[in-house]
Amino acid sequence: MRNRKNFSFYSFFTCKKKYEFIEGMLLILPAITVLFIFGYFSFIYAFYLSFLKWNYITDPVFVGIENYVRAIDELVKGISGAPWYEVPFFMGIRNTLIYTIIVVPIQTMLAIVLAAIVSSRIKGSSVFMTSYLLPGFTCSVIIALIFIYFFGQRGFINYLLNQIMPGFGYPDWLYSKNLVIPAMAIVAIWGTSSNLAILFIASMQAVPRDIIEQARLDGAGPIRRFIHVILPMIKPTIVYAIIVGMIGALQMFDLSFVMAGPQGGVEYSGMTVVLDIYRTAFLQLNPGYASAKAVLFFVLMYIPTLIFLRKHGGGLK
User: Fold this and answer.
1) Which residues contact 185 (CB under 8 A, 6 or more apart)?
2) How many Å apart are CA 109 and CA 192, to the nearest integer?
3) Is the predicted pLDDT of residue 35 greater than 80, yes or no?
4) What is the mean pLDDT of residues 247-259?
């Protein structure tokens, strides 16, 4: 009788766990389906297309690694100094790297500063943060359209810079080969640093108060407490923010499409990798070559990201 009761008790909880497992799987099934279709399946299909020559109309033809050889040859020509119109893929990688180098460090440092201001609870910090968070909830295309007028010859940016630095001039940022990438970087920093600031605020608020109080009792001022106590405690969050920022910057498409145009601006000065892939696939009707560019760019960018994560991402485990 005792064994029978134990068996029934065990069976009850076993069945309950099975039902909970089934319910949980049903709840996450829509998300898994979307992730599989637009994530894993898309990557596998793009890898398959990279071995084909196709124009959406005729039957696809298997060409082996010809698309990869062509993409690598374009990179080599670009490094060797070929004219800009012959190497859009190289121009896209170069501009994307410059954009990433500008955006990621500045937006991360700015987000940390904003989070520190809010966490310090000084007078007016909440109002300041609320106003600065607004761009994070605004569509990036709308922000880019607004900034197009700001970056015009008689726009607000030139007016402000001439007030600060008399004689700066009135360049048209979006039609200047040297200024279009910095212009897009300014828009990205203004629009995305607030999102990262929310992440840092949560991380700073999770730092144990007794540690900060102990540092204060030991004579550490606000700046020393921030540098020697808070920053080391939020290092995993900083690494995460840098990685997320790098991924977002390398995938940048909307700002370049709106601000530089679908053709990449003057002499491809506003071309990015994703914009070049879009042009190759949908304007030049060559999805096979576009897929090869996408796969090659993924490999080129995955390796340094993995090295950075292995070196500095120990706290994320």
Assistant:
1) 99, 102, 103, 106
2) 12
3) yes
4) 91
Q: What would the DSSP string read from start to end of 147-194?
A: HHHHTSTTSHHHHHHHHHSTT-----GGG-TTTHHHHHHHHHHHHHHH
Do both 23 and 86 map to the same domain? no
Residue matched to tokens 């029978």: 4
**Residue 152 φ/ψ region, left for φ over 0, alpha for ψ in the -120 to 50 degree band, beta for the rest:** beta
- The percentage of residues in the chain with a pLDDT greater than 90, rounded to a whole number, is 33
| Residue 91 belongs to some domain of the structure | yes
Average pLDDT over residues 94-115: 92
Structure tokens at 115: 């989070």
Q: How far apart are CA 216 and CA 235, in angstroms?
A: 21
Residues 38 and 89 in one domain: no
Structural contact between residues 91 and 268, judged by C-beta atoms closer than 8 angstroms? yes
Report the interhelical angle of 41-49 vs 287-312 (nearest 10°): 130
Residue 240 lies in a domain: yes
Q: What is the value of pTM for the model shown? A: 0.85
In three-state secondary structure terms, 52 is strand
More reliable by pLDDT, 238 or 125: 238
| 36-37-38 Cα angle (round to 5) | 100
Q: Which domain holds residue 31?
A: 2-49
Running DSSP on this structure, what letter comes out for residue 175? G
Token pair belonging to 89: 């893929």
Estimate to the nearest angstrom the gap between the alpha carbon of 42 and the chain centroid. Answer: 19
- Give the tokens for residue 165: 């630095």
Query: Using the 8-state DSSP alphabet, how is residue 316 labeled?
Result: G
Give the mean model confidence (pLDDT) for residues 205-225.
Answer: 81
Structure tokens belonging to residue 194: 């607030």
Amino acid 306 reads L
Q: Considering only CA atoms, which of 238, 288, 221, 300 is closest in space to residue 60?
A: 288
pLDDT digits (tens, 9 = 90+) for 23-33: 888 888 888 88
- The domain total for the chain is 2
